[in-house]
Design a protein that fits this description.
The protein has ten helices and nine strands. By secondary structure, it is of the alpha/beta class. The structure holds 2-keto 3 deoxy 6 phospho gluconate (ELE).
């Protein structure tokens, strides 16, 4: 089994909102608002008990949205998310088990990297699109530029502390395929059910 091409699965989506779900209905409303605003992929973090059901609900009720799982820390979570309908999975770091199982399960997987050694490990295992986390904390803009030399074939998805103000700088790097961030799904807007404002944030981000 060869590694699934995650960049192909994400089909040109350049901004991936990171969203921690409060309920299934909320998740569907958030995904619909983002899609309406021109964002076609969402990373649902596995940080709340409803997360797997939220992924299943988006997969079922929001057909145009490419739904993925974030905060995938172990193999059991990877399989749960896959069964629920996640089209891709993302981790803040990487482990040998996850690199092996994502390939075996044929799920698009973005391992997380923060050092050159981790890039070598994930890239060596066949993964081309790598999440760089926590991006702002490790000055990922400079790291990603430096990695374009030794890791010329690698593509990156920086995430962590990125907002609308930083996004354009990252997207201008030739080896940045996409980036992730929670600025499109602010808790205050979600709690108020302000889907129009989430749609507006998505529209602004998709114009970047
Ligand atoms: O859950 C994961 O898999 C992670 O690696 C962490 C997330 O990518 C960050 O929590 C993004 O959130 P912001 O930094 O608020 O944009």
């Amino acid at each position: 089994m060869s590694v699934v091409d995650a960049e192909a699965v994400l089909r040109g989506q350049r901004i991936i909102p990171v969203y921690t779900p409060g309920s299934e209905t909320e998740a569907v409303a958030v995904a619909r608002a983002l899609l309406q605003g021109g964002i076609g992929a969402i990373e649902v973090t596995l940080r709340t008990p409803v997360a797997i059901d939220a992924i299943a609900a988006i997969a079922r009720d929001v057909p145009g949205m490419i739904v993925g799982a974030g905060t995938v820390l172990d193999v059991a979570q990877l399989h749960q998310a896959h069964r629920a309908g996640a089209r891709f999975a993302v981790s803040p770091g990487c482990s040998d088990e996850l690199l092996r199982e994502a390939r075996e399960a044929a799920i698009a997987y973005l391992p997380g990297v923060a050092t050159s050694s981790e890039v070598m490990k994930a890239f060596g295992a066949g993964y081309r699109l790598l999440k760089v986390f926590p991006a702002q904390a490790i000055n990922a803009l400079a790291l990603i530029a430096a990695w374009s030399g030794p890791f010329a074939q690698a593509r990156f998805c920086p995430t962590g502390g990125i907002d609308a103000a930083h996004a354009a700088q990252y997207l201008a790097q030739p080896n940045v395929a996409c980036l992730g961030g929670s600025w499109l799904t602010p808790k205050a807007l979600i709690e108020r059910g302000d889907w129009a404002q989430i749609e507006a944030l998505a529209r602004a981000a998709s114009a970047l």
